[in-house]
Every structure is written in C-alpha cells, then in structure tokens.
Design a protein that fits this description.
Helix content: 10-25%
Number of helices: 10
Distance between the termini: 33 Å
Number of strands: 36
Largest sheet: 15 strands, mixed
Strand content: 25-35%
Shape: globular
C-alpha cells in the first residue's frame, strides 16, 4: 500500500482501490475500487442516544497511522451528544473497514454509518419556519429527514440484499430503502421472515450486476444487540443499526465495522465476507468433518399433507383464512401421521428423518405433548426407531411464554412490557428550524403494529435462570431416552422474538441482551441441552448467519410462497446463501407450498443437488389438489435411491 500526502490531502492506494481525502470537502472521503464502485463517504456518522439527535460540531483533519500491513486514517471530532468521537478507516491491501468510537454515557438508540446531521447547519440559514398549508402544523406537511441529513454520494446503481423473501427480490436501486432485519413480516415482499437472520451483508454495484463491492457488518461476539441493519437510500445513502435503547454506554462505545471488499459475484463476495468473520474471531468455526450419517438422509415432514387435508388455500382465494395456514395444524395427529407413513411404506418410500410438525403439543402449552392428538407419543417414537427412523419435533421457541402458548410459564420468568416506555421514536424535522427553538429530540409516537403483527405483554427472557431451567427440563424430557426419546428439533417462527421498546426483565439486571444476542442466547439454551440429552440430536433452524453456525446442524430453506411456476432458482439462491454462511451445514430443502405438481416434479429432481431431499406430501398438492401418480412415486424412489448411493461422496456439492 502507498500513502501520498499533498498539503492536507491524503490518498491511500491499495491493490485494488483508492481512499482519498480532499481537505476542500473536509467531512468526506472518497473510496473507489478498481471496478469504479464505491462512494463519497460522509465521515462523521451520527450516533443517537437517549432519544436525542446527534449532530456534528467539529471534525479535525485526519491523522495517518501506519503499521505492518495496515494504514489507518483517523478523524477526531465532537458532537452534541458525545464528548469525543474517533472515526477510523482501516486500509488493507485489498479491503477497507470503517468504524467509530464515541466517548460519553447514555442508552444507544441507533448507530448510523456515513450519514448524520450538522449543528448550525449553514443550509438552514435559508429557512425560516415551515408555514405550509393545512389546518395546523401538526397535520400539515413536514419535510422528510433526508432533507436535513448529510449523506454519502453513491458511485453505484444497484444494491444487493441478503434478506430472503417470498418474492425473491434481491436487487434494489440505490435510491430505495432496504432492511435486513430479525423481526420480518409476512407482508414484506410476500414475507421476509423466513430466514432469521440472514448474513448482515449488502453489495453495491452497476446495473449490469457483474462487479460488486461488499458492505458487510463486522461485530464482536456478544455485542450484536441490534434488531436491524438498514440501507437508507435516496440521492445520498447511508447505513443504520437499531439498538432501541438496550445498549448502555458508560465511558465509551466502539461501533461495529463496515467491511468494503471488491468481488465479481455476490456469492463470491459473501464467501469472502464469511471467511473474514471466521478467520478473525467474529464467528465461530465449527468442525463438521464427522457428523452423524443419518443427518444427511431423506426427510419426510407432514406439514404439506396436513395442509392438503384442510381448506387453507380454498379459504385464501375465496375469502380469508385463520393465520397463514387455516386449520392445518389440527391435522397433526398420531393417526394422521401413521396413515401418511403407511402410504409411503406401501410405495417403498422410506424417509430416515421424520418431522412431526405443528402441532404435536397442547395448544396453550407448546412444549407439552397433546395426549388427545398424540396418545402414547413415546410408543410412536419407539415404533419409528424400530423402523430406522429419527423423529424431529417442530418447535416455536418464542411462543413459549404467557402471551402465546406458554401458559405454564410464571410471570416472574418473563420480560414484561412497560407500556409507559413502549413507543416508537421518530424525527419531527421541525426541530431543525432555528426560529422554532425546539429541542433536538425525537418525537414519541404510539408503537406501530402492522396488520398481522402480534401485540404481546410477556416475552421470553433467556437470561432468567428459572426460565432457562424450565427450558432445559422440557428439552431433557423430550429428547432423553427416559422421556419421549425424540431426536431433535426444527425451530420455526424465529421472527417472533421480542422486538418492541419497553420490555424489561421481571428480575432486574444491568444489561438485557437484545436483537441478535437475545435470539442466539435463546437458541443456545435449546441446543446446549439437546446435546446433553442426546449427543447426536439434530437441530434444524433458519438462521442463515455465520454468528449462529455454532448452534445449528441443519439449515431449513423454509417456505417459498411464490407466484412463480418454478421454485428451483429461488431455492438454489437460498441454498447458496445458507451453505456459504454456515460451511458444511446440512440443508433441509423444504417443499411448502408447491405451486403445482409440475413444480414439485422439477424441484424433487433438483433437491439432491443442494441438500437433503424432502417430501411434504402423500396425496398430492395442497394448492391445486393435483394427486400423485404411480409415475411420480417411481421417480421419487429413483431420486432417493440415487441420492443415498452418492450422498457420502457428493452430498450437496459445493457451489
């Protein structure tokens, strides 16, 4: 690397990029890779705390610090909320990272990157008061926040997001807003809640989509206390992490880093990002060289057949249905599953892994067996073991609380909603008009619940020792030979994790994990106890994120509600994201809901190329009511037979 200085101007040249500071634009640096992708980056990123808006007061000239293999550009500044801030660019030969450290105290609301506000903004000298037409100021038009914000100038046209959605929308224009979030919603692009979370990873590039630069998030383990990683588009762009006040800063706080690296493809770029996390201790490296052989075997899950025998899709198109699947869960019974398996055995279809789906448990007690639906479930599990099968139980971890299906959990083991502190924070841009003399504070609004989102007063508290003990006892019973003797769990609905401001633990403590850390801690309790109860227990999840690699054995590609005739392309994309994020992890290829029988036939042939072949149906398609033919069963027998012959050598070939 080369550093060139001319007066106060500085240029750092790496193998494939330049980072340039021009003192005439003293709050920006230009980062441009050799593929002409990058941006003019606003250096003093805003970091809001205690409901106040952070504004830059001063930013000093950068200091160059050189060490072996790295050059740092360090800016020191002062803002309205922080006594001192250090903004740092770390330059390596083929990549650059950006982060900042704030000095002070408070509760972190959100951390911006490459966007912020200026105190005494000279642009506001042209403004007087916002006297727009209307009955009153409250209801009249307000300028958008971006009009008052200093952002970064894009040197790109397209943004790739790793967030998985049913519409299979992956690419956005530079001026659009995009969010990678934990608390996805079924109405965002047909549902963006099926991977929780994906990698925190964007790529920026040209319209041709043939050359890219990554913007991957790099966070120290234990500090992932955010709910979403947002790309803020417009004429200028920026990034944002939402912390919701759960991170307490005492003295100083170091932000996560943004990793910039050039690549000629999105999957190659993602692989480089994951390798960086694993090589530098930001994600654990899991040894999967000697996993149990049965984890790779074909899977049968009864959910699709449960849906076939409901009126779910008829209700969907004619009027409406209860939830996403109507009454399909009521078709999860021992009798129904015995009929399904008998029909498969009759056709010489023999899955090794059986997933008992929603709901084998009592309606209000989701970790207790429903004896009415599943009499002598232990006997059923024993019968499957005798046939060489393993039984996996569907579990929704964040429904095990009093506001949902955990009526046996005492109030004392929860986090409880403090309604006085449950609100949304928004920026009313009137605060930027000097003539109004308003405090630079965010406005409080009632919490917004979109249609279909759940209002809950009690939520899971994974740091509560009594709650953890309760979970461990349930897991021990469900998986140990002394109990039910099942063989693992398939986690679902992870987007239902607590996600609103105002939750406080019943047992007070100084720190409360939030966002990613709360999700990881909750799943770790299940995973850790599962392995203690049964070392070869299989844990299936939809956490396509390298930070979760240590607590998952198989990644489920999840539902693909779609308007496409074929699901192959979007499921191949999901599989590539999953397998890059957690190298060597087994892949549950899913099969719900198939658009029609032709799509099922095509996908059944494709599944062995990306993971474990999965069957969800016995009679036919839930969507069209088309029934399987003898030829379909013959095709499936051949696919599974060929897969089993080769799975130890070519299982899920690398992409």
């Amino acid at each position: 690397m080369i550093v060139a200085k001319k007066g106060n101007n500085i240029t750092v040249t790496g193998d494939n990029y330049t980072l340039e500071y021009n003192s005439k634009q003293d709050m920006y640096v230009t980062l441009l890779f050799n593929n002409n992708i990058g941006g003019e980056l606003f250096v003093p990123s805003g970091c809001d705390r205690d409901e106040f808006i952070d504004e830059v007061i001063t930013l000093n000239l950068p200091e160059v610090r050189e060490s072996s293999g790295m050059i740092e550009l360090v800016f020191t500044g002062k803002t309205t909320l922080w006594e001192k801030v250090e903004y740092t660019f770390k330059c390596f030969k083929d990549k650059a990272l950006y982060s900042y450290r704030v000095y002070g105290n408070g509760s972190l609301d959100n951390a911006r990157f490459f966007e912020g506000f200026l105190k005494d903004d000279p642009c506001m000298e042209k403004k007087l008061v916002p006297a727009y037409t209307g009955e009153g100021r409250k209801t009249a038009w307000h300028r958008p926040v971006k009009d008052f914000m200093y952002s970064s100038a894009p040197r790109f046209q397209v943004v790739f997001s790793s967030q998985i959605n049913s519409a299979d929308k992956r690419f956005f224009m530079y001026y659009e807003d995009v969010t990678i979030q934990l608390n996805g919603w079924i109405y965002n692009y047909g549902g963006d809640c099926f991977v929780t979370p994906p990698p925190f990873f964007y790529m920026i590039g040209p319209k041709s989509k043939d050359s890219w630069v990554s913007m991957g998030l790099v966070v120290k383990p234990g500090e992932n206390n955010f709910m979403s990683y947002e790309y803020s588009g417009g004429e200028g762009f920026g990034l944002n992490l939402t912390y919701d006040g759960f991170t307490k800063i005492s003295g100083s706080w170091q932000s996560p880093e943004i990793l910039f690296e050039m690549s000629d493809g999105i999957y190659k770029g993602l692989k480089n990002y994951v390798c960086y996390l694993r090589d530098n201790g930001f994600a654990k490296v899991k040894d999967r060289s000697n996993i149990p052989g049965w984890w790779k075997e074909p899977i049968f899950g009864g959910w699709g057949e449960q849906c076939y025998h409901s009126t779910s899709w008829e209700d969907y198109f004619k009027s409406s249905r209860k939830g996403r699947s109507g009454s399909s869960s009521e078709n999860c019974t021992r009798k129904a599953y015995e009929i399904m398996l008998a029909q498969l055995e009759k056709r010489d279809i023999n899955p090794t892994i059986l997933i008992v789906d929603n709901r084998w448990f009592r309606k209000d007690y989701c970790l207790d067996i429903d004896e009415a639906l599943w009499p002598d479930m232990k006997g059923f599990v024993s019968e499957q073991h005798a046939k060489g099968r393993k039984v996996i139980l569907w579990v929704s971890p964040f429904d095990y609380q009093r506001s949902s299906s955990g009526k046996d959990v005492p109030v004392s083991e929860h986090m409880v909603l403090n309604k006085d502190n449950s609100y949304s924070l928004v920026i009313d841009t009137d605060v930027f008009y000097k003539e109004l003399n308003l405090e630079k504070r965010k406005s409080i609004e009632p919490p917004k619940y979109e249609y279909g989102q759940m209002k809950r007063e009690f939520v899971v508290d994974p740091l509560n020792p009594d709650y953890e003990k309760r979970i461990r006892e349930k897991v021990q019973f469900l998986l140990s030979p002394e109990g039910l003797d099942a063989d693992g769990f398939e986690f679902d609905y992870l987007h239902r994790l607590p996600s609103r401001k105002g939750f406080i633990p019943v047992i007070p403590r100084e720190e409360t994990p939030w966002g990613v850390e709360l999700l990881h801690r909750t799943l770790w309790i299940y995973y850790d106890q599962a392995k203690k109860a049964k070392p070869d227990a299989l844990i299936i999840s939809h956490t396509f994120n390298p930070y979760f690699d240590d607590i998952v054995d198989m990644l489920r590609l999840n539902d693909f509600y779609t308007d496409n005739r074929s699901v192959v392309e979007q499921m191949h994309h999901r599989a590539r994201i999953a397998r890059i994020s957690c190298p060597g992890c087994c892949v549950h290829t899913d099969q719900h809901p198939m658009p029609n029988l032709a799509a099922w036939r095509e996908y059944a042939r494709f599944q062995p190329l990306i993971g474990n072949p999965v069957l969800y149906y016995v009679t036919g398609m839930e969507t069209t009511k088309e029934k399987f033919t003898d030829e379909d069963w013959g095709m499936l027998r051949e696919i599974w037979s060929q897969y089993r012959e080769k799975m130890d050598t070519v299982y899920a070939p690398k992409t």
